[in-house]
Amino acid sequence: MPDAPKQLYVEGNCDLLLHDSIAIVGTRNLTDYGKKYASIFAKRIAKEGITIVSGMAVGIDTVAHIYSMKEKGRTIAVLGGGFNNIFPKENTYLYKQIIENGGCIVTEYSPDTPAYKQNFPKRNRIISGLAMGVLLVEARYRSGSTITARYAIKQGKQVFCIPNKLDEPTGYSGNYFIKNGANLVTCPKDILDFYNIGEEEAIKTAKEYEDIYELIGMLPISADELSKLTHKPLAEIEEALCMLELECLIKHVAGNRFVKIT
User: Cα separation of 148 and 121, whole Å?
Assistant: First the structure.
C-alpha cells in the first residue's frame, strides 16, 4: 500500500495476519435484513477457515465478529485508537472475547492514543488491506464502510455487495457499487466460489438433506408441504432449508416457498 502504516500494534494471535481473510463491513444503524445476512455470511465463510476482518464498531461490524466466532472461526478487529482506549466502550467485552477465541486486535496507534474521529476513515485502509476482498452488507451514502470499499478498489481487491431495496437508506452504497461493477452476491457460496473454496461443503449438505433437496424443484414448495411429504417435523425441515439456502442450492421466493437453483 502506498499509504501503509509505519507500524502495527497487534494483540492476540498475530499469525492470523498471514491467513486468508475477508472483510465484512457495514452501517452502525443496521436493519434486521443487514443483521440476518451479516451473520449468515460471517458464519459460513468462517466455517471454511477464512478469517473475518472488521472494525469492531457497533452494528454490522459487531455482528461479523460475533458470528464468525460462533463457527469456531477467527476474527481480526482493526481499531481507530490505541488498546487502552477501546471505542465504543460497550465493545470492551467483545474485544476480550476476540482475544480469548484466538483472534487478534490490530491498530496503527500506540496504546494510549485516543480514538479520535478522524482516525476511523484512515483505519479503513487497513481493514481492506488485510483482506482478499470486502463484503459490504449495508451502508449509507458517504459512510465509513463506503470508504473501506473504495480503499479495496484502490488496492486492487474485490468488492462484494448484498443488494438491497432502492428506498432503504442503508442500502444505498451497496446498490451503487453493484451498479458500478462490484460483485453482486446473494449467499456466501458466491464469495467462496470466487476463490474456489468450499465446494465440498455444498456437496456434503446436498447429500445430508438429500430426501428434502430432491423434493424441491422449479415449482415453489413450502416447508409445510415438505413436512407432509417427508413426515418430518417442521423444525427439522426449516433447519434443512436454512442449510440448503446457505449453500445456494435453493432460494426463498414469494409466499414463503422455495425453489431449486440450477
Answer: 8
